[in-house]
Write a structure and sequence with these properties.
Blueprint lengths: L5 H24 L1 H26 L4 H30 L3 H15 L1 H19 L29 H31 L1 H13 L3 H40 L4 H11 L6 H16 L4 H25 L8 H15 L1 H20 L4 H7 L7 H10 L3 H12 L4 H22 L4 H36 L5 H9 L2 E6 L3 H13 L6 E4 L8 H9 L3 E6 L4 H12 L8 E5 L6 H8 L6 E3 L2 H19 L1
Length: about 600
C-alpha cells in the first residue's frame, strides 16, 4: 500500500473543507425546513421509550403512539398556557415595581451615580461654552443656514399591526403542528424509517451503520430524558423556593427556569436574573434578593454535582468546550432553537465520528476522552520542553498507579521514543539531551520521595521495636550488593536508576552505575564491589548488541545464574534474544522493570536469609 504524498494530503484536506462549507451553507439556507424536522426527530427520541413501554404492556402500536403524543404535547401545552396566564397577571404590576427598583439601585450605586453626574455636567458645560463657529455653518455667499433633514415614516395602521402579529402567531402554530404530525408519523414508522436509513446510507456496511444508529439513539434518548427530568426537578424546586421566599408568580419563574436550563451553562443564570430583579423591586431590604441568589446557587450546585453525575454523568461523551462552541455555532445557524438543540445535535455528531472513519476528527474535536494515552502525554510534554507539566503528570498518575507501572509504561517509553525519533532526525541532539535530563530528574525526584517515605516508616518501626533493624545491619555488614550497569549510553543508565529504586531489599545495596568515561571502569568496579547480582540495562534500538558485548566482558565475574539482562521495551521473542546474546543458558533476560525486580528478589532471597 503506497503512502500518501503531500499533494494527496492537500487535496484530501481541501475536499473535506469544501464539503464542510457546503454542509454548513445547506444547514443555514434550509433552516426553515430542517428546524421542524430536527425538533421532530429529537422529540421522537425522547418519546420512543414511552411508546416501547406501552407496547410491552400489550397496547397496539397506533394507540400507544397516540396516547404518548397526546400526553406529551398536552403537558407541554398546559405548561405554555400556565406561563402565558402568569405573564398576563405579572404585566399590569410591573409599573408598581419600578419605583422600588430604582430606589434600590440608587442606594446601591450612589457613589457611581454621583461620579457620572459630575462627568455629565462637565460635558454639558463644555458643550454650552463652545464657540459659535462650532454650530451650523452658513454657506459662503448666502445668508442661509444648513439644516439636517430626517425622513419620518408614517405609523403603521391597525390592520398592518394585526396582520404582522397574526402572521407571526399563525407561523408559530403552523410550525408546531408540523412538528406534532412528524413526531406521530416518526413514532409509528420508526422501525421502517430506521431500515430505510440503513439501506440508504450504509447498505454495504450494515453492521457499522446499525451500531451507529443504536448508539446515537441510546445516547440522545437517555440524555434528553434525563435532562428533562433534571430540568423539571430544578424548575419545581425553583417555584417552591420562590413561593416560600414570597415572590409573586413563582410558577412562571419555575417554568422559565426549567425551560432555560436546556441552554448549556448560561441558561440557569439567565432564568435567575429576572426573579432576582423582581426580589430587589419588591423588598425594602436585601434579604429576599440574597435568598433568591442563594436558592439558585444551591440548586445549580446540587444539580451539577449530585443529580447529573448520578443520572447520566459523562455518558454523552461531549467535552465542556465542545458544548460551548456548539452552542455558539448552532445559535448562529438556527437562532434560539439552535441554542436549545446544540447539545443533542453535538452528541449525534460525536456518535457519527466514533463510527465513521472518514469523520473521526469529530470524535477528536468533540469528545471528552483523552487524545493521548498517558505515556504519549508525558513524552509530548517533554518534547515540547515542558518538564514541569511532565513531572506533574507523573505525580498525578502516582496517586492511583504503582510506580513500577509508571516507569514501565511512561518513562521507559519516553526514553525509547526519544532515541528512535533522534535517530530518525525528528529533533537534534540538544533536544535529546534535554529529554534525557528531564526524565533523569523526574526519576531522582521519585527516588527521593521513596527514600523519605522509607525513612519515616523505618523510624516508626524502630520506635516500636529496636530489634527489627538488626538483620538489616548484619546483612549490610555482609556486603550484599546488586549492580545495575548501563549497556552503552545515558538512557540505559536512567533505566538502571529506575530499577535500583524499585528493588527494595533490606540489607542489600542496590546501585545504579553511571555511564563510564573509560572502557575498563565497569570491569574495575565489578572487581571491586564483587556484586551478587548484575543487571545490564539496555534500551532499543541496539539493545541486544550492546548487552551482548558487555555480557562477554563480565563472564566469570558474577556467580553463575546471577547475571541478568534487561531489554526494556523489547518487542521480539526473549528466547531468541537470549540466543543472540549468547552468554550461556543461565543468563536471565527480562523485558520489564517489574519482571527484573521479581527476578532480583528471587536471586537474593537465599543470601539474605543466610545473612539474617
Amino acid at each position: 500500500m503506497t503512502a500518501m504524498t503531500p499533494s494527496d494530503h492537500f487535496a484530501k484536506s481541501t475536499w473535506m473543507l469544501a464539503s464542510i462549507a457546503v454542509v454548513v451553507a445547506a444547514l443555514y439556507l434550509a433552516k426553515e425546513l430542517l428546524v421542524p424536522l430536527t425538533l421532530a426527530v429529537l422529540l421522537s427520541f425522547m418519546l420512543s421509550p414511552v411508546c416501547d413501554w406501552l407496547e410491552r404492556r400489550r397496547l397496539p402500536r397506533i394507540p400507544a403512539v397516540m396516547v404518548t403524543a397526546v400526553l406529551g404535547f398536552a403537558a407541554l401545552g398546559l405548561l405554555v398556557w400556565i406561563a402565558v396566564v402568569q405573564m398576563t397577571e405579572l404585566a399590569p404590576k410591573m409599573p408598581e415595581y419600578q419605583a422600588n427598583l430604582k430606589a434600590k439601585l440608587h442606594s446601591a450605586n450612589t457613589y457611581a451615580i454621583s461620579v457620572l453626574s459630575k462627568v455629565t455636567s462637565a460635558g454639558r458645560d463644555i458643550g454650552q461654552n463652545l464657540p459659535e463657529s462650532e454650530g451650523p455653518q452658513e454657506v459662503e455667499g448666502t445668508n442661509e443656514r444648513l439644516y439636517s433633514v430626517r425622513v419620518v415614516s408614517s405609523p403603521a395602521s391597525p390592520l398592518e399591526v394585526f396582520g404582522g402579529v397574526f402572521g407571526t402567531v399563525l407561523g408559530g402554530f403552523a410550525s408546531a403542528g408540523i412538528v406534532i404530525v412528524l413526531v406521530v408519523f416518526f413514532l409509528i414508522r420508526r422501525e421502517d424509517l430506521r431500515d430505510r436509513f440503513i439501506h440508504l446510507i450504509g447498505k454495504d456496511q450494515v453492521t457499522v451503520t446499525t451500531q451507529m444508529l443504536e448508539d446515537a439513539g441510546t445516547r440522545v434518548s437517555r440524555y434528553l430524558s434525563m435532562l428533562l427530568f433534571i430540568n423539571a426537578t430544578f424548575g419545581t424546586a425553583v417555584g417552591i423556593g420562590l413561593y416560600l421566599i414570597g415572590l409573586p408568580n413563582a410558577v412562571l419563574w419555575g417554568i422559565l427556569a426549567a425551560t432555560l436550563r436546556f441552554i448549556p451553562y448560561l441558561g440557569p443564570w439567565i432564568a435567575a436574573a429576572m426573579p432576582i430583579g423582581l426580589a430587589m423591586a419588591l423588598s425594602t431590604g436585601w434579604l429576599a434578593p440574597l435568598l433568591t441568589i442563594g436558592l439558585f446557587v444551591a440548586l445549580e450546585l446540587f444539580s451539577n454535582n449530585v443529580m447529573e453525575p448520578w443520572l447520566y454523568g459523562k455518558r454523552t461523551g461531549v467535552s465542556a468546550v465542545a458544548v460551548l462552541v456548539a452552542a455558539v455555532f448552532w445559535t448562529w445557524l438556527w437562532g434560539v432553537v439552535g441554542l436549545l438543540l446544540a447539545t443533542p445535535l453535538t452528541v449525534c455528531l460525536l456518535v457519527i465520528g466514533k463510527h465513521v472513519p472518514q469523520l473521526s476528527f469529530l470524535d477528536v474535536l468533540l469528545g471528552n476522552e483523552p487524545v493521548f494515552e498517558p505515556a504519549k502525554r508525558v513524552y509530548q510534554r517533554l518534547v515540547a520542553g515542558d518538564q514541569e507539566e511532565a513531572a506533574q503528570l507523573v505525580e498525578d498518575y502516582c496517586v492511583e498507579t504503582p510506580l513500577v507501572e509508571i516507569y514501565d509504561t511512561m518513562l521507559i517509553s519516553a526514553l525509547v521514543l526519544s532515541q528512535a525519533h533522534w535517530r530518525r532526525g525528528d529533533f537534534g541532539e540538544d533536544r535529546l539531551k534535554y529529554i534525557l535530563q528531564s526524565v533523569k530528574e523526574i526519576v531522582q525526584e521519585q527516588g527521593e520521595r521513596r527514600r523519605e517515605i522509607s525513612a519515616a516508616e523505618a523510624s516508626e518501626n524502630r520506635d516500636e521495636d529496636d530489634e527489627d533493624s538488626r538483620p538489616a545491619v548484619a546483612a549490610d555488614q555482609a556486603g550484599l550488593c546488586v549492580l545495575c550497569l548501563p549497556a552503552r549510553n545515558d538512557a540505559d543508565e536512567i533505566a538502571g536508576m529506575m530499577l535500583s529504586q524499585l528493588v527494595d531489599l533490606p540489607g542489600c545495596d542496590v546501585e545504579a552505575v553511571p555511564v563510564p568515561s573509560a572502557a575498563g571502569e565497569l570491569i574495575a568496579l565489578v572487581r571491586q564491589r564483587q556484586p551478587q547480582v548484575i543487571c545490564i540495562s539496555a534500551l532499543p534500538p541496539a539493545a541486544v548488541m550492546h548487552a551482548r558485548a558487555l555480557c562477554r566482558r563480565l563472564r566469570g565475574r558474577v556467580p553463575e545464574g546471577n547475571l541478568m539482562v534487561g531489554l526494556w521495551h523489547a518487542q521480539e521473542d526473549l528466547n531468541k534474544a537470549k540466543e543472540r546474546i549468547g552468554c550461556g543458558p543461565h543468563i536471565h533476560v527480562v523485558a520489564t522493570l517489574a519482571e527484573a525486580r521479581e527476578k532480583i528478589r528471587l536471586l537474593m532471597q537465599p543470601l539474605l536469609n543466610q545473612g539474617a
